[in-house]
Amino acid sequence: MSSRATLHVAVVAGGPSAERGVSLSSGRECAAALRGAGFRVTEIDAGHSLAEDLKALSPDVAFNVLHGRWGEDGCVQGLLEWLRIPYTHSGVLSSALAMDKQLSKAAFASAGLPVAEGRRATRDEIEAGHLLPLPYVVKPVSGGSSVGVTIVREAMNAARVSPDAEGPLMVEAFAPGRELTVTVMDGRALTVTDILCDGWYDFSAKYEDGGSRHVLPADVPPDVFGACLDYAFRAHEALGCRGVSRADFRWDEDRGVDGLILLEINTQPGMTRTSLTPEQAAHRGVSFPELVTWMVEDASCDR
């Protein structure tokens, strides 16, 4: 690979998904850090002209910071494969699998990982009656950042499907307890973060100032800590992920290790300096500029 001064990195962010704002924030942070590390950087706000923009730029690496549909589900990865531009994060198949929560749950279950009961359902089926015992969760099959998620409880009178929910839907048994998360990078699980917030970990808790507090390493029993690391690595491997990924868990502390439930894996986790993955990397001695530099150096086609 070329020296940093001559290596041209296209940071691809934004896009048309519901997570556009989060992606733009991540993109700005990554672009600034990459410039500070000595790379030549061009920022691209991904739109319908993305293929033409990339062909005109002909970058050495595409740093993919898109979140949600199109950018995180294998679509842009397929475009980059077609253009033969080395790119960061996971490849076409693993991105598509991770983005489809029902398919990824099936892969996790086959690998012996603990998941919650769930199934796909239409809007009409969900609104017509309870498909699972209360409480349960209704969410888009493909999506992130808790956009379009509803927790259905006994006293709930409102519609069970959020107006923000896009695409196919699923219902899933509600997993009580604490929010834990683990990043996998370069073949190792980094640490466990305990996410503290009032209420449940929705979009506001994730992205608004003071919405949540991150405790790392998490103050949990050693066997639970070790299980989180093991499950995150195995989930990463089960889907064939590359680069960095982040596995999210719920933990019912009254049940010990048996209370751990793997919710999903994020193949393109948030990448601001205060996001969970950069925080975990920093805890393991990898600064933000070092993290994004490693991701550029790890980029390839045929992922």
Describe the structure.
- With 303 residues, this protein is α+β, with helices and mostly antiparallel strands.
- The chain has three domains: 8-89, 3-Layer(aba) Sandwich (Rossmann fold), CATH 3.40.50; 97-115 and 176-267, 2-Layer Sandwich (D-amino Acid Aminotransferase, Chain A, domain 1); 118-173.
- It is built from ten helices and twelve strands.
- The chain has helices at 20-36, 50-57, 75-83, 92-99, 101-110, 123-128, 203-207, 222-238, 276-283, 288-298, and strands at residues 8-14, 40-46, 61-64, 118-121, 136-140, 150-152, 169-173, 178-185, 188-196, 213-215, 244-251, 260-266.
- The strands form three sheets. A five-stranded antiparallel beta sheet has the order 10-9-8-11-12.
- The chain is globular and about 60 Å long.
- The two termini are 17 Å apart.
- Mean pLDDT is 90; it is low at 201-207.
